[in-house]
């Protein structure tokens, strides 16, 4: 799907640009120190665009102070009160997220559009299955993908009639297959960039599975310009999951891929513990684009790790360090992790 380019702060989406990762702070936005601290952690983890809730005027005014201290674009999330959207824009938001359906009259929507137009910042038009208009629910016999698409395009049409087309569209549902179908339908009806995600996906376990399934089906069709993995938990986990989904689909390079074998009766090392430690270790090396294997036994370990750049395989109280499928060193189990760290430190970096 070829979409138009949209500039959000210092980043550009659409038009074939790389898919960017978003998340949302869960701090009180008016608590500037806490919000900035969380944004910096998210940025370090790989977040490209951050969204903050703006439930009141104090939060809207805090945006200016937050913007002074962060490096990634900030999106202001507004519901119901059009004055908060205008205040967020005046305080430097790089983009605003509204649902024109709950902002109020067209006069109020126009006031928001005029403010965005004056600053030339994009408006993200968001529609969720949980807030689909009653007339569309009745028209389609319930909440459906078709209803979501019609609702979103209706809202877009309102803003376009007001003379503004610097837009991003978001249509989300907690129903994975409905969400997939809605994106397939809207992709043929607009060239505005799409922000993709499975809303209210759930806790870390369920949310990751639902998001991975839904996002994979959507993104693999060339649909989507930004993504968010919505999880009930630490927003850092959203970034980790989003990066892994994009990398698995071949849509983003960089970062170390960890592969590990399932445990079996031959396992004679704390494979689960070692694999988790390796997964945490490699987060320090985001500048490398390699594969690391963690294998549970020395019988099959070297063979199974042949496709990896580096690997470790466990034995009884000891293990093997493997490079390009060849055993390079035998070490006590307690020294495997540090040996792997040293290999990663010494690994050749790509020429800039």
UniProtKB/TrEMBL annotation:
Organism: Pseudobutyrivibrio ruminis
Pathway(s) it belongs to: Isoprenoid biosynthesis; isopentenyl diphosphate biosynthesis via DXP pathway; isopentenyl diphosphate from 1-deoxy-D-xylulose 5-phosphate: step 5/6
Domain IspG C-terminal: 257-344
Pfam families: GcpE, GcpE_C
Name of the molecule in the record: 4-hydroxy-3-methylbut-2-en-1-yl diphosphate synthase (flavodoxin)
Cofactor note as given: Binds 1 [4Fe-4S] cluster.
Function recorded in the entry: Converts 2C-methyl-D-erythritol 2,4-cyclodiphosphate (ME-2,4cPP) into 1-hydroxy-2-methyl-2-(E)-butenyl 4-diphosphate.
Record-listed [4Fe-4S] cluster binding positions: 261, 264, 297, 304
SUPFAM superfamilies in alphabetical order: Dihydropteroate synthetase-like (SSF51717), Nitrite and sulphite reductase 4Fe-4S domain-like (SSF56014)
Cofactor requirements of the protein: [4Fe-4S] cluster
InterPro entries: Dihydropteroate_synth-like_sf (IPR011005), IspG_bac (IPR016425), IspG_bac-typ (IPR004588), IspG_C (IPR058579), IspG_TIM (IPR058578), NO2/SO3_Rdtase_4Fe4S_sf (IPR045854)
Organism domain of life: Bacteria
Example GO molecular function: 4-hydroxy-3-methylbut-2-en-1-yl diphosphate synthase activity (ferredoxin)
GO biological process, one term: terpenoid biosynthetic process
Keywords: 4Fe-4S, Iron, Iron-sulfur, Isoprene biosynthesis, Metal-binding, Oxidoreductase
Enzyme category, top tier: oxidoreductase
Catalytically driven reaction(s): (2E)-4-hydroxy-3-methylbut-2-enyl diphosphate + oxidized [flavodoxin] + H2O + 2 H(+) = 2-C-methyl-D-erythritol 2,4-cyclic diphosphate + reduced [flavodoxin]
Enzyme nomenclature, EC number: 1.17.7.3
Keyword presence, Iron-sulfur: yes
């Amino acid at each position: 799907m070829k979409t138009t380019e949209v500039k959000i702060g210092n980043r550009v989406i659409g038009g074939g640009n790389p898919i960017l990762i978003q998340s949302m702070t869960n701090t009180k936005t008016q608590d500037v120190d806490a919000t900035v601290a969380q944004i910096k952690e998210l940025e370090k983890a790989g977040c490209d665009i951050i969204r903050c809730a703006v439930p009141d005027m104090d939060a809207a005014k805090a945006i200016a102070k937050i913007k002074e201290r962060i490096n990634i674009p900030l999106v202001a999330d507004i519901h119901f009160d059009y004055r908060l959207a205008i205040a967020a824009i005046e305080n430097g938001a790089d983009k605003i997220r509204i649902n024109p359906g709950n902002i109020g009259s067209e006069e109020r929507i126009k006031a928001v559009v005029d403010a965005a137009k004056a600053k030339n910042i994009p408006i993200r038009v968001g529609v969720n299955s949980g807030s689909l208009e009653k007339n569309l629910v009745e028209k389609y016999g319930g909440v459906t993908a078709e209803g979501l698409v019609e609702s979103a395009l209706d809202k877009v049409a309102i803003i376009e009639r007001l003379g503004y087309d610097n837009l991003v569209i978001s249509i989300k549902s907690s129903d994975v297959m409905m969400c997939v179908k809605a994106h397939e339908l809207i992709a043929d009806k607009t060239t505005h960039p799409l922000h993709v995600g499975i809303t209210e996906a759930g806790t870390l376990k369920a949310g990751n599975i639902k998001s991975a399934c839904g996002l994979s089906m959507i993104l693999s069709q060339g649909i989507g310009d930004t993504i968010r993995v919505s999880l009930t938990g630490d927003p850092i986990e959203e970034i980790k999951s989003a990066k892994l989904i994009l990398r698995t689909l071949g849509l983003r390079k960089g970062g170390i891929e960890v592969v590990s074998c399932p445990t079996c009766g031959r396992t004679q090392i704390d494979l689960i513990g070692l694999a988790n430690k390796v997964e945490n270790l490699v987060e320090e090396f985001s500048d490398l684009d390699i594969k690391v294997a963690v294998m549970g036994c020395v019988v099959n370990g070297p063979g199974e790790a042949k496709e990896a750049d580096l690997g470790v395989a466990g034995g009884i109280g000891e293990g093997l360090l493997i490079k390009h499928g060849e055993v390079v060193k035998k070490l006590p189990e307690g020294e495997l992790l540090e040996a792997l760290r040293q290999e990663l430190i010494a690994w050749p970096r790509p020429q800039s």
